[in-house]
Amino acid sequence: MNPTAKEPTVLFVDDEPLILKLIRRELFGAPFRILCADSPTEALRCIAEQRVDVVISDMRMQEMSGLELLDAVRSLDPHVVRVILTGQADLDSAVQAINGAAVYRFLQKPWVPGTMEQEVLSCLEHGSRLRRQSPAHASTVDMLERRHPGITKVRTGPGAAIEVEPGMLNVDLGAFLRQMEAAKDELQVK
Protein backbone atom coordinates (compact mmCIF):
# COMPACT_ATOMS: atom_id res chain seq x y z
CA MET A 1 0.00 0.00 0.00
CA ASN A 2 1.49 3.38 -0.96
CA PRO A 3 1.27 5.84 1.93
CA THR A 4 -0.31 9.18 1.19
CA ALA A 5 -0.74 12.25 3.35
CA LYS A 6 -4.48 11.56 3.76
CA GLU A 7 -4.21 7.83 4.35
CA PRO A 8 -4.81 7.01 8.03
CA THR A 9 -1.97 5.20 9.77
CA VAL A 10 -2.29 2.55 12.46
CA LEU A 11 0.69 1.41 14.52
CA PHE A 12 0.62 -2.03 16.15
CA VAL A 13 3.08 -2.67 18.96
CA ASP A 14 3.83 -6.15 20.26
CA ASP A 15 7.07 -7.84 21.27
CA GLU A 16 5.80 -11.13 19.83
CA PRO A 17 6.69 -11.25 16.10
CA LEU A 18 4.01 -13.87 15.45
CA ILE A 19 1.25 -11.49 16.62
CA LEU A 20 2.51 -8.73 14.31
CA LYS A 21 2.67 -11.22 11.42
CA LEU A 22 -0.95 -12.32 12.09
CA ILE A 23 -2.09 -8.69 12.19
CA ARG A 24 -0.38 -7.89 8.88
CA ARG A 25 -1.94 -10.97 7.28
CA GLU A 26 -5.44 -10.22 8.59
CA LEU A 27 -5.30 -6.56 7.57
CA PHE A 28 -3.76 -7.04 4.13
CA GLY A 29 -5.59 -4.72 1.74
CA ALA A 30 -7.26 -2.70 4.51
CA PRO A 31 -8.03 0.97 3.72
CA PHE A 32 -5.35 2.28 6.08
CA ARG A 33 -1.58 2.13 6.37
CA ILE A 34 -0.20 -0.45 8.81
CA LEU A 35 3.01 0.03 10.77
CA CYS A 36 4.37 -2.58 13.17
CA ALA A 37 6.85 -2.10 16.00
CA ASP A 38 8.31 -4.94 18.01
CA SER A 39 9.23 -2.73 20.96
CA PRO A 40 7.95 0.39 22.71
CA THR A 41 11.17 2.23 21.79
CA GLU A 42 10.60 1.51 18.11
CA ALA A 43 6.96 2.60 18.46
CA LEU A 44 7.95 5.95 20.00
CA ARG A 45 10.49 6.48 17.21
CA CYS A 46 7.78 5.82 14.60
CA ILE A 47 5.43 8.32 16.23
CA ALA A 48 8.17 10.94 16.44
CA GLU A 49 8.96 10.53 12.72
CA GLN A 50 5.46 10.47 11.21
CA ARG A 51 1.80 11.03 11.85
CA VAL A 52 0.06 8.06 13.44
CA ASP A 53 -3.71 8.07 13.97
CA VAL A 54 -4.14 4.95 16.13
CA VAL A 55 -1.72 2.98 18.32
CA ILE A 56 -2.75 -0.54 19.30
CA SER A 57 -0.35 -1.95 21.86
CA ASP A 58 0.10 -5.21 23.69
CA MET A 59 -0.33 -4.76 27.45
CA ARG A 60 2.63 -6.84 28.63
CA MET A 61 5.99 -6.27 27.02
CA GLN A 62 9.56 -6.63 28.31
CA GLU A 63 10.73 -3.05 27.85
CA MET A 64 7.71 -1.26 29.34
CA SER A 65 4.03 -1.99 29.75
CA GLY A 66 1.50 -1.07 27.11
CA LEU A 67 0.00 1.44 29.55
CA GLU A 68 3.36 3.15 30.00
CA LEU A 69 3.82 3.25 26.24
CA LEU A 70 0.34 4.67 25.61
CA ASP A 71 0.85 7.28 28.31
CA ALA A 72 4.06 8.34 26.53
CA VAL A 73 2.16 8.39 23.22
CA ARG A 74 -0.46 10.62 24.82
CA SER A 75 2.28 13.03 25.91
CA LEU A 76 3.73 13.12 22.40
CA ASP A 77 0.40 13.53 20.61
CA PRO A 78 -2.86 13.57 22.58
CA HIS A 79 -4.87 13.18 19.34
CA VAL A 80 -3.63 9.63 18.74
CA VAL A 81 -6.32 7.07 19.59
CA ARG A 82 -4.83 4.61 22.07
CA VAL A 83 -5.92 0.95 22.29
CA ILE A 84 -4.72 -1.99 24.40
CA LEU A 85 -4.55 -5.47 22.86
CA THR A 86 -4.32 -7.98 25.68
CA GLY A 87 -4.97 -11.51 26.76
CA GLN A 88 -5.11 -10.53 30.45
CA ALA A 89 -7.78 -7.83 30.84
CA ASP A 90 -9.09 -7.07 34.30
CA LEU A 91 -11.05 -4.21 35.85
CA ASP A 92 -8.05 -2.66 37.63
CA SER A 93 -6.05 -2.58 34.39
CA ALA A 94 -8.99 -1.08 32.53
CA VAL A 95 -9.45 1.70 35.08
CA GLN A 96 -5.71 2.43 35.12
CA ALA A 97 -5.66 2.52 31.31
CA ILE A 98 -8.65 4.83 31.03
CA ASN A 99 -7.48 7.22 33.73
CA GLY A 100 -3.75 7.13 33.10
CA ALA A 101 -3.32 6.78 29.38
CA ALA A 102 -6.85 7.68 28.23
CA VAL A 103 -7.18 4.37 26.41
CA TYR A 104 -10.15 4.32 24.05
CA ARG A 105 -10.69 0.57 23.84
CA PHE A 106 -9.49 -2.83 25.02
CA LEU A 107 -9.17 -5.58 22.42
CA GLN A 108 -8.86 -9.21 23.48
CA LYS A 109 -6.18 -11.63 22.37
CA PRO A 110 -6.88 -13.83 20.61
CA TRP A 111 -9.30 -11.80 18.54
CA VAL A 112 -12.00 -13.33 16.37
CA PRO A 113 -10.58 -13.72 12.83
CA GLY A 114 -12.06 -11.19 10.44
CA THR A 115 -12.93 -8.62 13.14
CA MET A 116 -9.72 -6.60 13.49
CA GLU A 117 -10.35 -4.39 10.44
CA GLN A 118 -13.75 -3.29 11.77
CA GLU A 119 -12.23 -2.58 15.20
CA VAL A 120 -9.51 -0.43 13.61
CA LEU A 121 -12.03 1.42 11.41
CA SER A 122 -14.08 2.17 14.53
CA CYS A 123 -10.96 3.59 16.22
CA LEU A 124 -10.17 5.72 13.16
CA GLU A 125 -13.72 7.09 13.14
CA HIS A 126 -13.45 7.90 16.83
CA GLY A 127 -10.20 9.79 16.19
CA SER A 128 -11.78 11.66 13.32
CA ARG A 129 -14.69 12.74 15.55
CA LEU A 130 -12.27 13.93 18.24
CA ARG A 131 -10.29 16.03 15.75
CA ARG A 132 -13.53 17.64 14.52
CA GLN A 133 -14.58 18.66 18.03
CA SER A 134 -14.45 22.37 18.59
CA PRO A 135 -11.41 23.79 20.35
CA ALA A 136 -13.88 25.33 22.81
CA HIS A 137 -14.70 21.85 24.12
CA ALA A 138 -11.04 21.11 24.81
CA SER A 139 -10.66 24.54 26.45
CA THR A 140 -13.64 23.87 28.70
CA VAL A 141 -12.27 20.50 29.81
CA ASP A 142 -8.84 22.06 30.48
CA MET A 143 -10.44 24.89 32.47
CA LEU A 144 -12.52 22.43 34.53
CA GLU A 145 -9.46 20.33 35.32
CA ARG A 146 -7.47 23.42 36.37
CA ARG A 147 -10.24 24.71 38.64
CA HIS A 148 -11.30 21.30 39.99
CA PRO A 149 -8.35 18.88 39.71
CA GLY A 150 -9.48 15.33 39.07
CA ILE A 151 -12.98 16.22 37.85
CA THR A 152 -12.35 14.74 34.41
CA LYS A 153 -11.01 11.44 35.80
CA VAL A 154 -13.01 8.48 37.08
CA ARG A 155 -11.77 6.00 39.68
CA THR A 156 -13.54 2.89 40.77
CA GLY A 157 -13.25 0.96 43.98
CA PRO A 158 -14.39 -2.49 45.05
CA GLY A 159 -17.42 -3.66 43.10
CA ALA A 160 -16.78 -0.97 40.47
CA ALA A 161 -18.18 1.74 42.77
CA ILE A 162 -17.16 5.25 41.71
CA GLU A 163 -14.73 6.80 44.18
CA VAL A 164 -14.74 10.52 44.87
CA GLU A 165 -11.78 12.50 46.21
CA PRO A 166 -12.33 13.75 49.76
CA GLY A 167 -13.72 17.25 49.58
CA MET A 168 -15.04 16.92 46.01
CA LEU A 169 -18.61 16.79 47.27
CA ASN A 170 -18.03 19.72 49.63
CA VAL A 171 -18.37 22.16 46.75
CA ASP A 172 -20.79 25.05 46.66
CA LEU A 173 -22.88 23.79 43.75
CA GLY A 174 -24.28 27.27 43.03
CA ALA A 175 -20.77 28.74 42.81
CA PHE A 176 -19.67 25.83 40.62
CA LEU A 177 -22.58 26.37 38.22
CA ARG A 178 -21.86 30.11 38.08
CA GLN A 179 -18.22 29.31 37.22
CA MET A 180 -19.39 26.97 34.47
CA GLU A 181 -21.73 29.61 33.06
CA ALA A 182 -18.95 32.23 33.18
CA ALA A 183 -16.57 29.83 31.41
CA LYS A 184 -19.21 29.15 28.76
CA ASP A 185 -19.75 32.89 28.20
CA GLU A 186 -15.98 33.45 28.10
CA LEU A 187 -15.54 30.78 25.42
CA GLN A 188 -18.38 32.21 23.32
CA VAL A 189 -16.76 35.66 23.34
CA LYS A 190 -13.49 34.33 21.88
Structure in words:
The protein has helices at 17-26, 40-49, 66-76, 91-101, 116-132, 135-147, 173-189, and strands at 9-13, 33-37, 54-58, 81-86, 105-108, 155-156, 162-163. Strands 2-1-3-4-5 form a five-stranded parallel beta sheet, with helices on both faces. A two-stranded antiparallel ribbon has the order 6-7. The radius of gyration is 19 Å and the shape is elongated. α2 (40-49) runs parallel beside α3 (66-76) and α6 (135-147) packs antiparallel against α7 (173-189). It has 190 residues and is α/β, with parallel strands linked by helices. The chain has two domains: 9-132, Rossmann fold (3-Layer(aba) Sandwich); 135-189, no CATH class. The longest helix has 17 residues, at 116-132. A hairpin with a 5-residue loop joins β6 (155-156) and β7 (162-163).
Structural class: alpha/beta
**Widest sheet, order of strands:** 2-1-3-4-5
Rounded mean pLDDT is 80
CATH superfamily of the largest domain: Response regulator
Q: Largest beta sheet, briefly?
A: 5 strands, parallel
